[in-house]
Each structure stands twice: as structure tokens, then as C-alpha cells.
Amino acid sequence: MIDKLNEEINKFLSSFENIEEEKINQIQKKFSTSITDDLNKGHVTTNVSMIAASNLKKSPKDIATALVEWLEKTKKFEKVESAGPGFINITLKRSDFVSTINKINQKSQKFGESDYGKGKSVQIEFVSANPTGPLHVGHGRGAAYGDAIGRILSSSGYKVQKEYYINDAGRQIDILTASVFARIFSDELNGFFPKNAYKGSYISEIALAFKNKNNLKLDIDKTSLIENLPIDEEKEIDELILRLKENYGAWTDIKAFALDEVLKTIRTDLESFDVTFDKWYSESSLGDISDKKSKIKKAIDYLIKNKLAYEDNGAVWLDTSKSGDDKNRVLIRDDGRATYFASDVAYHKDKIDRGFDKLINVWGADHHGYIKRIEASIEGLGFDKEKLDVQLVQFANLFKDGKKVKMSTRSGDFYSLADLINEIGTDAARFYYLSKQADQHLDFDLDLAQADNKENIFYYIQYAHARICSLLEKYNKSFSSMPEDATAISNNTYTNCDKLIHEMSKYPHIVLRAANALQPHLIIYYLKDFAQSFHSFYNDNKVLTESKENTDSIVYCLYAVKIIIANGLKLLGIKPIEKM
Q1: pLDDT the model gives residue 19
Q2: Considering only 129-143, 153-167, 400-414, which range has the smallest mean pLDDT?
Q3: Phi then psi for 408, rounded to 5 degrees?
Q4: Which residue(s) pair with 165 in the sheet?
Q5: What dihedral do alpha carbons 372, 378, 381, 383 form, nearest 10°?
Q6: Is residue 205, in this structure, part of any structural domain at all?
Q7: Separation of alpha carbons 432 and 436, rounded Å
Q8: Are 395 and 138 in contact (CB under 8 A)?
């Protein structure tokens, strides 16, 4: 539909004399054609007359009048008329309008796919939660979002790689190790447990698993280990970690075991959530700043060599203020230790070095202040900061029985992603995580997500799919095969399906919008309205008691409706339901 119209519009623009090609190109990039929001306005509309007015030095209405005449002469459209300040509304010929059903039924699962991003590679890094415990429901929103945009971009022709960055080289992993250590030797330490350690039951489970595989003894003096520790919670655990690293030989074994156990849990939970990664990238693989051959050392040296990083008071700083950061940032501390920021700089250099055309980072909203410094590091390393697209995701607040659910990993009192999956299922969880724009606040009501009524949008959409499956099953029991066309609709003798056809024609453009804007919720909004159109049609029409020709046409159309709903849900990582 739209391609045919755009082709004629471009011919129309090229017909103007004494207009530079550059101006024509500007118009072609800016004007839009889209499916009308209401059938009373025709099938397709364009704003080209208003966009072209300044370049063509004519009024929008004069351009609209000329374009209407041009399009009418082609005889490719049923009706062409101008509206408002210069919109052009086009009614398609019946065969072109109805052809949408044929395209959907022929392409089936591939309908809505495009080659828009063909030849372009995108890397999406998301979740990347510290491997210090099970994922909680706050992490679930980023997981659903990152996976969904990966699916949508893939369907739009992009080559997509999904990556999880494992923060396995920092202080939090040391705290995890100290927490497990304290549980392993709880009896020997007379129940001592650091105030700022991780307190979840999973810590005791990891400790028990380690003890069952290893026959270790506390071969250091417990008095020197836990006495005279600082009163401050943060200083207490840091001092305990220091003492353990210096005096306890099995520290490395416990650390490796604890990290592996937590990562197993994270992988399992994500797989249950239908989220998989092409690559798990370890922070520790960046190496140590003391190693001249390490990735982190090479990245910092490059910045220093090009005078983009500088030394001051024994520390190495990156000048991030030039990129709008509120102050410059430390890369190497005055004691020679690399900061977390230094690891991020080296990691992003490695990502760009791998040749991706676009990097998408899905971060929690609390990382907003981190964007400028990463952009500064990318520029400092000689790359275009436009390669990086940071998508901020607000953590979701979960409500159950009207009360907000706690989500603190450190305290051990939290509702895990696995708990959510067990309670309402993967599909409902993913749907509600994606039901609003990712950077907007989300209150996730568990009770609503499980309700069997139209207030539950997830149920309402799935019910539409299941209703059609039931109808098709009844049809198949009466007739030997599915209809191959929609004769009554094509001949304009049955028009009750027109609104459904019109809504279906919007689907490919919704997918493309979602891909360009990285906004999966656009698909949910579309499916909600589309499901409403279907339910209204179903309630107002007696499908199987119509004439054979009308019934065949309706069934052929509703089979396409089923495909649209299924394809839309699958882009969100949700399985369509056939029976409810």
C-alpha cells in the first residue's frame, strides 16, 4: 500500500522544475505516509504537502491540490482527496485493500519482518546484575526489555548479539565470598557474621554445598581474624576481606565456587524467563592494570598517550567534563588499583573493537549520571560516541495483596524473579514488564496479572487468540479444509471485516516503529487495540451461521488476525495461548 503511494509521491516531487535535488531529498526524508487512524479518512494518509511547502515555495493546499490531480491520473487508487491544512487521504482499490489478508496468510510467521536493518550489526548488553545472589523482580524488567528489543531488531533485519557482562572482579564479589566463608565456618566463629554481608538463605545453601565437596578446616587463628574489627559496617567487612586474603589459602577456592553457584542460578532463572545470551563476558577477562598486555592496561595507556587522561596526586584521571560530566573521573587510584570505571572503559573499547555498528546498553535508571563519562571515554578512545545508545530502565515495584514487595538482595528479604515466574508464569511477567515505556515508573500488580477479565490486558489479548483458535477448530469439524481466499470481502459484498483488515495493515509499521524507537510497549498498545477490535467484531457477528461464502471469507480473515496476534506476542517473547 504505502510503497505504491510513496513511489508516486517521489515521481510528483521530481516533476517540479528548478528544484535542487538536495531539497527533493530533504523532503523525501522528512515526509511520512501512514495508515489512517479511521476508515472514514480512507486507508492511507500523507503529510508531504506540508513538509514540501517551504522547499517548493508553495502553500500546502496548492501542493495538495496538485498532488491529488497527479494521483487521480495514475488511476492506481480508488479515491484521493485533500483534508485539513494539506493532508492527502487515499482510499485504495478493493483488491489492494484486501490483499493484506493474503499477504498475512501467505507469509504467516514471517509477516511483519523486514530487511530494514540488513547489513547492520547491533550488540545489546543487558541485565548484567552483580553475581552476588539470585535475580530479583527489579532485574526482570531489564531482562524482558533487552530480550524483546533483540527480537524486534532481529525481525527488522539487524544482526543482533545479546551479551551479559559479568561483574566478577570487584568488591561485591569479595563481600559474597566473605559472606559464604562466614557461613561455612559459622560454628568455629561462634556464629559471627559481618553486619554488611549478604544475608539471604542462598548464602547458607552455597556454604553447605561447598562443605559437602570440600573437607576444609579453619587453619588461621579465629581470634586474630574477627577480633578488633571496625565498628563501621563497611569498614568491618573490608577489613575482614583483607585479613582473609592475606591469611587464608582457600579464599580463592571459595570465591570461585560461590561465583559459579550464583551464576548457575542466574542462568537458570533467565532461561526460565526465556532470556538467553549469545555471550557471557567476564570483567576479569579484561586483566589487571599491572599487566602490560591486559585489555584494561592498553585502554588506559592509549588515553594517557593521547593526552585524554592525566595524572594528578598519584592518580590517573579521565577528562570527562568536556562531555558534560559534572567532574573528571578517576581511572587509577593513587594506590595503583583500577576503578570500576576503568574496567568499563576497557570493556567498551573491546565491544567497539569487535566491529558492531551499534552498541545498546540497557541500564537501570540509577545509572543516568554514568552516561556522560562513558561517552567521554568512547570519544577519548577515538570512536564516535553516537555508536552507543543507552536505554534506561526504571526498576519495577511489585505489589501483592495491595502491599509493596521488598527487593533488597543484601538483606536477603526479597522476592526473586524465580518467585515471580512460579507465581504468574513467564509470559504474564514479561507482558507486564513490557506494558509501559521502559524509562517510566512501573507498578506491577500481581493480582491484576492473574485476573481472568478484560481489565487484565494480557488475558484480554490472549483470549482473542484462543477465541479464534476455538472458532477455527469448529470450522474444521464442519468443512474439510481452510478457505483459500476471501471472495465475499474482495467483492465488497461483506464489509464487516474492513476494520480488522485496516488494523492488520498497521502491524508492519508498528514493528518498524518499535525497532527504531527501541520501544516494545508500542506492540502491546497495538495488540490491546487490535484485540478490542476483534472482540467487538466477534460479539457483533455470527460467524459460522453466515452464508458459506461469507463464512469462508470471515474465517480466512480471522486466520490472519490470529497470525498477527501470535507474531506480535512472539516478538515480546510470549507464547500465544490456544485454549483458556
Answers
A1: 81
A2: 400-414
A3: -95, 110
A4: 281
A5: -130
A6: yes
A7: 8
A8: yes
For residue 427, tell me if it sits in a domain.
no
Hey, what's the cell of 122?
547491533
Instruction: Using alpha carbons, select from 124, 47, 40, 129 the residue that is nearest to residue 84.
Output: 47
What number of other Cβ atoms are within 10 A of residue 148's Cβ? 26
CA 345 – CA 392 distance, rounded (Å)? 19
- Domain final position from 212, 240, 265: 265
Least confident of 1-10, 192-201, 262-271: 1-10
Domain count, the chain: 3
Nearest to 287 by CA among 274, 273, 301, 268: 301
Task: Name the residue range of residue 203's domain.
Answer: 171-265
Q: Give which of 179, 222, 219 is closest to 200, Cα–Cα.
A: 179
Q: Does pLDDT of 409 surpass 70? A: no
Fill in the amino acid letter for 90. Answer: I
With a CB cutoff of 8 Å and minimum separation 6, the contacts of 61 are 49, 82, 85, 86
Cβ proximity of 405 and 444 under 8 Å: no
DSSP helix/strand/coil, 396: strand
Whole-angstrom distance, CA of residue 410 vs CA of residue 198: 5
Q: At 248, is the pLDDT very low, low, confident or very high (cuts 50, 70, 90)?
A: confident
Nearest to 50 by CA among 99, 25, 85: 85
Global pTM reads: 0.93
CATH number of the domain encompassing residue 83: 3.30.1360.70
